[in-house]
Write a structure and sequence with these properties.
231 residues, alpha/beta, Rossmann fold, nine-stranded mixed β-sheet, two-stranded parallel sheet, 6 helices
């Protein structure tokens, strides 16, 4: 299956934004970041009720002026995550969190803690933004040099496996080469299931692809690679 943006550039230009009727609450991890913030902005424009999980020290500047709620905690602290989510009813989860290329256990611990936090919620879909080369997918790209950051890529693969094993309907969007901040959306990015492809995309297009997959049955329990032939 291949999903294309086509007219979804309207999401990014506020020309037309599809409104969500009786929308489930969307909980976004990494929502203050370079990818998460554009996702949150599109969710708000689409009238989704949005809650962003953020550390107390996170810079919320990218989300200034948006109508949303915050939960405060630390993804690396399981008790913090569970406590913050206690009593919350979450229907949709998006994880756009990221950490540097150090060999720390962030991705596995964060996924484990998120899953513990939402265990009592009726989650209908969990969208994870991951990386091309995660886990065994490294083997498809011997020329790229993923072995230099092997620990990180293995951890990202383990995070994917945890999500798949959770029983929650999932969508994994693996991002390849991401264009620098400020690069305009092209509107031609798409998602493919061919895991041999290392693509390029902008963060704005990745955000729009996220909205395209949200509550989309065609995206459930699948792993995609994001590509854009414009580059």
């Amino acid at each position: 299956m291949e999903l294309t943006l086509q007219c979804l550039l309207a999401f990014l230009t506020v020309t037309t934004v599809a409104k969500a009727d009786d929308s489930a609450e969307v909980l976004v991890f990494g929502g203050t970041g370079r990818l998460g913030a554009p996702i949150v902005r599109l969710l708000v424009e689409a009238d989704y009720p949005v809650t962003v999980f953020a550390r107390p020290t996170s810079d919320r500047g990218r989300l200034a002026g948006l109508e949303l709620a915050y939960l405060v905690g630390d993804l690396m602290d399981a008790d913090s995550v569970v406590a913050a989510l206690k009593g919350q009813s979450v229907g949709l989860v998006i994880d756009a969190s990221a950490r540097g290329l150090g060999g720390d256990p962030f991705y596995v611990a964060a996924m484990r803690n998120i899953l513990a936090g939402v265990a009592a919620s009726p989650v209908k879909q969990f969208i994870l933004h991951g990386s091309v080369g995660a886990g065994e997918n490294m083997q498809q790209f011997p020329e790229v040099g993923f072995e230099r950051i092997r620990d990180v890529m293995i951890a990202k693969g383990e995070a994917e496996d945890l999500l798949k094993a959770s029983g929650i309907p999932y969508t994994i969007i693996r991002n390849g080469l991401v264009k620098p901040d400020g690069t305009p959306a092209t509107g031609s990015a798409r998602l493919i299931e061919d895991d041999r492809v290392l693509g390029v995309a902008t963060r704005l297009d990745l955000a729009a692809l996220t909205l395209q997959c949200l509550e989309n049955r065609d995206c459930l329990n699948k792993t995609f690679h994001a590509v854009d032939d414009s580059f």
